[in-house]
Amino acid sequence: MFYAYFSFCGEGKNFGEMQGLLHKPVVETGAGAVECQAKGNRGGRNAVVTVVYLREYNLMTAFFASQFLVGLAICTDLLSFQFKERERVLFCLVISCILVSLHFMLLGHWTASCLGLLGCLRFTICCFTTSQRCMVVFLGISLVISLLTWEGILSLLSTAAVACNTVGAFRGNDRRLRELMFAGALLWLIHNLLAGSPTAVLLETIFISSNIVGYYRHYLRKPMGKPQYTAA
To answer: Does the reported pTM lie above 0.70?
Structure first.
């Protein structure tokens, strides 16, 4: 629901007649435009133009603000998988989750936003316990959130991604955490493409790349042996 904060005096209409449109609630139409409920006269059409302008301006402002928040989240993700200690990885992910959740909130994707905020709590708890009962509880809450805020394929993708992240976070093994987070990141990448957030797509791309680099450094690269010296 949007509101017109001012209106223009239409040609051939006095200001008192137009004043009646001030602060009238505005509803969306199927074509994506907006119309004033107090429509039906020339002044009403002028007011519609004003409301459409305000709505488009607010949407663009929200979009650019959301992209800035994801830019900050990228910085924390670049750090997260360069740490070997599980607690440091999870701390970086908490900060990233908060920023990304606010980003989805600005874009109006409530399933992803609520699941992201739940992820902040989940990663915090994971710093202290890897209880499988807690894991089941978080999976159940994620499902309920998805059903209450259902957005079709976007909700399905975000819920599946969160399920991977939840199972990974409650694994005591850092290697399994990285592997499951990699799967979750791929699902988030597809989600963000469909959600129309280019910076969030970049975020997941960097996250996946950072995860691969960290995984290679800690688990695939063979340690170099000490050089052998022989007597002359």
So the answer is: no
